Amino acid sequence: MPIRPRSFRFGPPIAALANRLLATYKGETVAVVGQRQSGRLGEVDRRRRYTVIARTNARVFDAAAQSLQNPACRLHFIGGIQGYPFQRILDAWRF
Q1: Which of 52, 53, 79, 85 could make an SS bond with 63 (beta carbons 3.0 to 4.6 A apart)?
Q2: Residues paired with 6 in a beta bridge
Q3: Contact call for residues 54 and 78 (beta carbons, < 8 A)
Q4: 8-17 in b/e burial notation, b at 16+ Cβ within 10 A?
Q5: How far apart are CA 37 and CA 55, in angstroms?
Q6: pLDDT score recorded for residue 1
Q7: CB 39: neighbour CB atoms within 10 A?
Q8: In Å, how far are 21, 36, 56, 59, 90 from 53, measured between CA atoms?
């Protein structure tokens, strides 16, 4: 019997949706288990931008700097901000 992957990042409703998507589009047969106590599915405003995928660190920096104009904006960097050489980019910009 395969081990069912578990995640503390989301709860059962999101796990159920993920399992349906993975089964439908990837043929996945092993279900993921959401271990978080809460979690909910909600409506997504498709007119808003939620994610920036960038090819360069300079573009990531630019997107982060532009987002600072919106006080409601929240930033998250995959792998942590330590992985991005923002100090070097900032030094070059100041130069």
Answers
A1: 52
A2: 33
A3: no
A4: eebbeebbee
A5: 36
A6: 65
A7: 16
A8: 22, 27, 9, 9, 20
